[in-house]
Each structure stands twice: as C-alpha cells, then as structure tokens.
C-alpha cells in the first residue's frame, strides 16, 4: 500500500474573488519580504481570516511560493519535513533533494539536519522563495519545534517565511523581536474594522443593514470574521434584523455554537446530515463524501455549499478536494458527538477507512480505523506499511499508531512486532526493543511461527543479528545475518541492504576483510539494481573506508573513483557522497599531493553542507589542520581545529570523534599546551601523573582502529614530556605500549595506525638514546609504506623524523627500501623558513621583487586570498595550466614548495602586506 503524500496539502488556495481587500495588512506582510532574515507570524484564535489573508498576499507577491497546510498528523518529523520539501519543490525542482534522501534512510537524524540542508539549498538559489505554513498551531512535537526554530535562526536572505497559528509557538519570540526578525500580526490587527465589516456584510453576504446595526454587530463580535459570517448566514431571510442584532450576546464560543445551530436549521435535512457526517473528515471529495454519507450526490452537495459560501475551502483547481473552515468543522464535530451514537460514529470512520484503503492512502485509512476502534482492520493496515515507514524515518507516526492499538492485538501480529523491534534498534534503543524481541522469540518457537513466510523468518534473524551487534557480539551477529541473507527474498531490498550492513560491520570486527568487502559490494550491487542510490553510495563509501584504514591507497583510489563517477553521473544529491570526496582527499593527502587533497576535502565539505552531517565538515577542518601543521603554519592549523571543535560542540561527530581528539592533542602540544592535551586523553581513561597508565584491554580483545588513534596520541604526549619538560620517566612504558599497539594493529591490518605507531616508537627510542632500534623501526615503516606510496605520514612528524631518515640513508638498515623513495619523502619536507634577521642579512628584497613578474605577483596575491587554481584562472582570464606554471615559478624564486610557505615568505619579504 502506498504511503504517498497528499498534493492537496501543498495546494495554494487562490484569493477569493469576493474577499474584502485589506491593504493595511497585505502591504505590511509584503513589505516584510524586503527584510532578509525576518519572518511573519499571524497569531490569533480561530475565525480571524488568517488563511484568507495569506492567500490574498500570495496572489499579489512576485516571488515563487511554497505552501503547506498542516494538520495533526504532521507531528512526525519525517512527515513534516517531507511535506515542507515537497512544497518547496513545487516552486524549485530539486530543492531539498539531499534531505529527501536522508528521510528515506533508516538512520536517526539530528534535529538540525534537515533544516541545515534546506538553508544551504535555498541560499544557493538564483531567486527568492516564500514559504507559507498554515495552521502551525497543530505542531506540538518538540523535535519539530526545535528544528524549525533552528531554521528561523539561520534564515537565508532568499527565504521568507509566513506562519499562521492559533497559539504562539514555543520559540524565543523575545529574541527574534530583539533581532528585528519577527513581524507580528495578531487578533487586534486581524479584526474587521467597522468599514470592513460593513463591506463584508452588505457586499459579500448580500445584506442591507442599517449603519447602526452594522456598528452594533461589529462591536458584539469584536470584528471576529467567522462570527460575522455566521451571523450573516443566520440573518439571511429574517425580517427583524435589528432585533436579532440586539439579542446577539455572549463570548465567541457561545456565539459560534448558537450561530452554527441557526445556520444548520436553515439547511435541508439532507444537507444537515451531509454536513454532520462529513465533519469526521479532514478533507472532502465527492467520492469520499458519498462513501461516508451513503448518498450518491456528493459533488452536487459540495458545489451547493460553495455557492452558499458555507465555510467550505477549495484545496485544488479541479474542484475535487475541499475542507471545512476549521472552526466550522470543530463545531460540527461537537454536534455530531452530542447527537450520534458511538456505533454510528464508528460506522462513519469505518467507511472512511475503507475508502482511503482502496485509494491507496494508508496513513489516512489507519487514522480512521483507529477512530472507529476497528483494531483488527487497523492492525492489518499497519502491518503493510509499518516497516517501510520506519525505514523512511517516519518513526513517530508509527509509534503513535501502535500506542493506540491495544497490546493484545499487537502481540498477535509478527509483522508489527518485527516493525517495533526495528523501530527501537535503528534508534540504538536496545532495552526498548527487548520486549518485542522476547515476544517474537516465543512466537517463532511455535508451530505457527515455523509456518510464517520466508520474508518474516529472514527479518526475524536480521533483527537478532542487529541486536547481537549492538551487544558487542560480532561473531554471533555475523552467523545470524548470514542465515537471514539466505532466507530473505530478493524482493525485500531495503531489509537485505540492512543485513549486508550488519554483515559488513561484523566481518570487519572479526577481521574478515575479504567477506566484509563482499558484503559492501553486495550492498552497492543490490541497491543499484533496485535504483537506490543512497544504499549504493553507502556500500561504496563503506568499502573505501575499510581499505583506507588498511592503508590500501591505490585500492581506495579505484573504489572511490568509481563511486564518484556513479554519483556524478546520477545527477542526484546523495548526502553520503560527502564521504567519498573526503576519502579521495585523504588518499591524496597521504600521497603528499596537497593541492588535490584540499580540492577533494573542500568538495566533501560542500556536499556535507547540504546534508546536515557534521562529520565531513569536521574532518575537512582536521585535514586542513594537518596540512597547515605539516607546512609549518601553526596559526592556521590551530584556527582550523578551533572550527572543528566549535562544530563538534554543536553537532557531536560520530565517525571522526577520535580523529578530532588526536589532532587536538597534536595542536595543543605544538602550542605548548600540555595540560589541555592531557585533559583530552584523561577523559578517555589515560593518566599522565607520576606513573603513566592507559585503558586496559579485556583478554582476547584487540586495540581497535579508533582506539589506536588515542593510544598513539598518548605516545605523542610522552615524547613531548621527555623533550620539552625533561620527563623521561615514562618513556620505557611508552615503548611497551607502542610495541603492543604495533603488534595488534598489524594483526588487524590497520596500516595507517601501524605506520604512525612505528614512527612514534622510532622517536621514543631516539629519545632514550637507542639509535639503532630507532633506525630499525623507521626502516620498517618505510618498507610497509613504500608499496602504497605514502609520503605525508612521514612528513607530518616533522624535523625529528626528517633527521632519522637522513641518518637511515647513511646506515645499512634500509633493506629492500629504494633509496629513491626515501629521497622523495625528504624532498617533501618543507624547508625551514629563514628568520627575519636572516632575511635582513641576505639579498635585498628589491632583487626578489624584480625577479617576480607582474603576472606572478598577481597570482601570488590571489593565492594569499585562498583562491583555487581554477578561480585564479577565471579572475585573470588565463588557463589553469598557466596558473600552475606561474605558481611553479613563484615556488622556485621564493625557494618554497607550498602555498602556505609562499604566503609566509612573501609577507616576510614585504611582497604582501600582513593583511593580505
């Protein structure tokens, strides 16, 4: 059954041809569109014409408009954002496409993820967009409230938001007012003036009231538009209008109730029944109304209501869908509640559920089945859509349905129990999943359970495998996932994709990399066959990430190259594509090709900026920090780590957490902030007091790749304490830890950690004065690194490793390592920049100025501005090859080999000001 979106919810209601013009309000709203970063809130009780006013404004503005008519079902974040994105796409195709991909993913999302994508997407538009959210008061979900408040806090200048609501949202309105972001229109603004009331009553409603009656009616209703309309309907055909007006008293609620009764009395019996029975519906169409009422003239009745101006609002241009004015619907439902029996109301809802089910609108069918308390039918409907909706992140909608169904009905449905288990497992909430798992265990152990479909049998095994993975039992998880793969039919691609992800994780944790690679390849292959680009990219990037940890740079390059080709050929915006670009940037970094590394890292961040994920953005800054530090620009390296830390404080990273800690330790040590560096690892279980201690491993366990990042950071601190503080007391314990880390990470084939650990061990032995062992370990690192062409992993260690490599060249310990390889690495070490004193004693600056051509100086200034080769070429109207040639000349004349060094040297020589 389809769980498709209702197009009527994104329909822009046209301005009513007989509506009273309200220029004092429309001009205020339209004027707000010239204030970037502000939004408009229409806040008043029901019946003050908020929707009518918004539709009138929309008909007058020039910008494209996205409209969402909200209802209570939109309290599920996935559903809310799906409709909002769909509305935006009616104005601009493709806006929010990465968010749509994420909403189809089973992975839980941070509240800011989707609004971040939209902010970035809309900011890149060529034109502006007006977003209207009608009836925002129905939104009570705190996650949505926080996320939308985040969007308002970061409104791009091209997005203008108009909101109608009966109550103020729980945002910091005072903050928005202080920033001059909020334009408020409230009940006192929306009330009809005496002139507007007279025009409405006499011109629109066709009455001919005396001026004193108009004034009295306006005063009694306080300009309340719905009250005036109900009163006008009640007065039609009366002779004693003045008497009616004089008798008109009471609050809005009582007035409305009284007036609805008056209006209903003037309708035929058939029309009264039609109005009351159809009040159970949020939206009305001829066929749906006929199904609910049992009448055969649904279209005629709806057209009659339109002609009578009886609180019916069109939801499309074809005359197929309508809704009651909300206030009118509320009052009709109250009357239905009072006058109809429980059985009669249930029967109406059953009829609506049957119609929606036949129309393929599952969510609406379920809502009415639940309202009818027809739980067997509700269970049958939920069984068909629960898992697909959970995998598309509509967790709260499904959870709300399940809370309404008595547990006795749920316990008998294996499909629903499976869906509930997935719902909690995908959130990482294992304790909440256990009750459903226990019920499933009992159910599948019975003869009836053995006769259930292969699809359910496979899902049950997949659930158990995921549960075991979450409990830290990869071997058992792997075995069950393999059984699930064999049982589960190929017609269940999403569940099969999840099984392969579980398998890949289990194989990696058990160091069975060949089978892990097969699992990743199967994820990509089956997703490609199903047309699921999200799972395909997940499979490719997961495979590349595994080979990268193993130091297989060439294999990673091939995998990622194919992944990027597939991604860019698809033309789709897949958020996980950011990982592919980041992995390519990392490969180039290790090869020492820093320009290419920066290019791909930047591309990763750009894609990430449209996905809402923090990890690629954080890792981009980490990579820049590593490159700046390697080039000797400590200030820039520290600045990038501050960016990464700030972002991690807002949106905690998942996959790059240990990378962040490791680089922060490195930067803190470079800045002589030993205490700050130690605090970072103290929080991870390390101790650097009189006796160095590190987290102990349980017997039989290994040092994982991520833990290895922390262990080698601890070794770096021990080196610092020995060299800068003269504290050599823990060097030998450091050597022991380095040896253990090397052995375990080597056994796990984590070559990246292995190489860094060997180089740290080499420096530890050098600090202990054991020179030959220091050279042996450096030679071992070279032997392991040479086949893949590692460069930067040596260079980033700086001068200590440079000296060790120079000494190694003169020794007999190189073994099979090519001397030319060592020379390539040494050539990549940045030359020491001369001090200011050395410069003043050296050649005249004027001679260098003459040596740089005017074009080279132009290129140098643009390099200082941070422009890429492509941007420089565009600005100077030359080819990229020409830019590279000029850059090479600059490097040669300034005796440097990187952009950062070029800028630093040029500033020292006075070729650039300190501000450039």
Which secondary structure elements does this structure contain, and how are they paired or packed?
Elements: H1 23-32, E1 39-43, H2 50-60, E2 65-69, H3 77-91, H4 97-103, H5 113-123, E3 129-134, H6 142-153, E4 159-165, H7 173-178, E5 182-186, H8 187-190, H9 194-204, H10 211-221, H11 225-235, H12 241-246, H13 252-265, H14 269-277, H15 286-293, H16 298-307, E6 312-314, E7 322-324, H17 326-339, H18 342-358, H19 362-371, H20 375-391, H21 395-404, H22 407-411, H23 414-425, H24 430-444, H25 447-450, H26 454-470, H27 474-487, H28 493-509, H29 513-530, H30 533-549, H31 553-570, H32 577-590, H33 594-608, H34 615-631, H35 634-650, H36 657-670, H37 674-682, E8 687-688, E9 692-693, H38 705-724, H39 731-747, H40 751-767, H41 771-785, H42 792-795, H43 799-809, H44 819-828, H45 836-841, H46 845-851, H47 854-864, H48 869-876, H49 880-894, H50 899-908
Parallel strand pairs: 1-4, 1-5, 2-3, 3-4
Antiparallel strand pairs: 6-7, 8-9
Helix pairs in contact: 1-2, 3-4, 5-6, 9-10, 11-13, 15-16, 15-18, 18-19, 19-20, 20-21, 20-23, 23-24, 23-26, 24-26, 26-27, 26-28, 27-28, 28-29, 29-30, 30-31, 30-32, 31-32, 32-33, 32-34, 33-34, 34-35, 34-36, 35-36, 36-37, 36-38, 37-38, 38-39, 38-40, 39-40, 40-41, 41-43, 47-49, 47-50, 48-49
Q: Note the gap between the termini.
A: 62 Å
The percentage of residues in β strands lies in: under 5%
Radius of gyration: 35 Å
Quickly count the helices.
50
The biggest sheet, with number of strands, parallel, antiparallel or mixed sense and barrel status, is:
5 strands, parallel
The unreliable regions are: 833-850
Based on secondary structure, the structural category is mainly alpha
Oligomeric form: single chain
| Number of distinct beta strands | 9
- Choose one word for the global shape: elongated
Q: Largest beta sheet: what is the strand line-up?
A: 2-3-4-1-5
Helix content: 55-70%
Mean pLDDT score: 84
